[in-house]
Amino acid sequence: MTTDSAQKIEINLINALEDRGLRKTSARAAVTQRIEAAGDAFTAEQLCRELPEVGRATVYRTIRHLVDAGALCKLPILDGAPMYSVARVEHHHHTICSRCGAVGEFRHSTVERVMRSLEKEIDGDIVGHRMEIFITCNQCLADNAKGDSHA
Amino acid sequence: MTTDSAQKIEINLINALEDRGLRKTSARAAVTQRIEAAGDAFTAEQLCRELPEVGRATVYRTIRHLVDAGALCKLPILDGAPMYSVARVEHHHHTICSRCGAVGEFRHSTVERVMRSLEKEIDGDIVGHRMEIFITCNQCLADNAKGDSHA
DNA sequence: TTTTAATTGATATTGAGTATCAATAAGGAA
DNA sequence: TTCCTTATTGATACTCAATATCAATTAAAA
């Protein structure tokens, strides 16, 4: 803590669990460290494969706790298991590369403004929303330009 | 066809299948009729239960064909099986009541405009998007006002 | 320490959805 | 109409994700 730490959003998942009154165990430490280290979005099964020393049930339970704590976002993937990504930005939306599956985050004030304007048109009370943008990420665009059809 | 039929969007699911070169069978007729009659969004398993005379595999296959044909929308539901609803509006988004699960459709030009403005901010090519609005529908609001906590 | 309750993880189970494949039905040709 | 080819069906077995069970273990408060 050399400088004021209020700026940086702490991505300390194990703390998020402790804050909920959960115990600090080696299994939970292994799961949260792995998630923090990877950085990318992941599926529950991927995590299980990467952490064979942690029981499958525990991996799933820990993920659920992190989602409940708001520390992980659960993204619904059509035709596939949901993916999880660390919530870095307070309220945000996701970009998902339809080629490689890379997940990004963004927030855009206009989106929120649109939501408010929609309230008039919609039959009922708005209680939330979800939005995903499907992209071809720059990496995939570059790969495509190089390799093209004959890999 | 008393008047010009161009106005009304035909919701003829069996025709959508025929247009794709698929045969008109009694099983497909049963599935599509049921979907049209219900009107509401549904899950694959619900349809299977309502149509015990049609094999489970056939129900799933028919749904898939209808989605491929663009006649059904497949909505990802977190913590649950995807729901399907008949696509009545060309490009649109969905409202989902978080109490009763009722699904509605809407389109809003501002949403599309926002999408275009996002292109500058996003790192890659936008190839699509999805948006769901979670609501408490008027029906549920009314039920709540009446019954309240002591059903 | 000791104690108590939370946690773990091997295993069984559930549920959604798909693959298989012999029997059947659709629909064009003769 | 009848025949023939091919699509379709549906019972069954299977895969995969995820949860329930529960005895053994471990965290952390006393």
Automatic annotation (TrEMBL), chains A, B:
Gene Ontology MF terms in the entry: DNA-binding transcription factor activity; transcription cis-regulatory region binding; zinc ion binding
Main location: cytoplasm
Required cofactor names: Zn(2+); Mn(2+); Fe(2+)
UniProt record, GO biological process: negative regulation of DNA-templated transcription; regulation of secondary metabolite biosynthetic process
Domain of life: Bacteria
Keywords annotated in UniProt: Cytoplasm, DNA-binding, Iron, Metal-binding, Repressor, Transcription, Transcription regulation, Zinc
PANTHER family: FERRIC UPTAKE REGULATION PROTEIN (PTHR33202:SF2), ZINC UPTAKE REGULATION PROTEIN (PTHR33202)
UniProt subunit comment: Homodimer.
Name of the protein this chain belongs to: Transcriptional repressor
Organism from which the protein derives: Candidatus Lucifugimonas marina
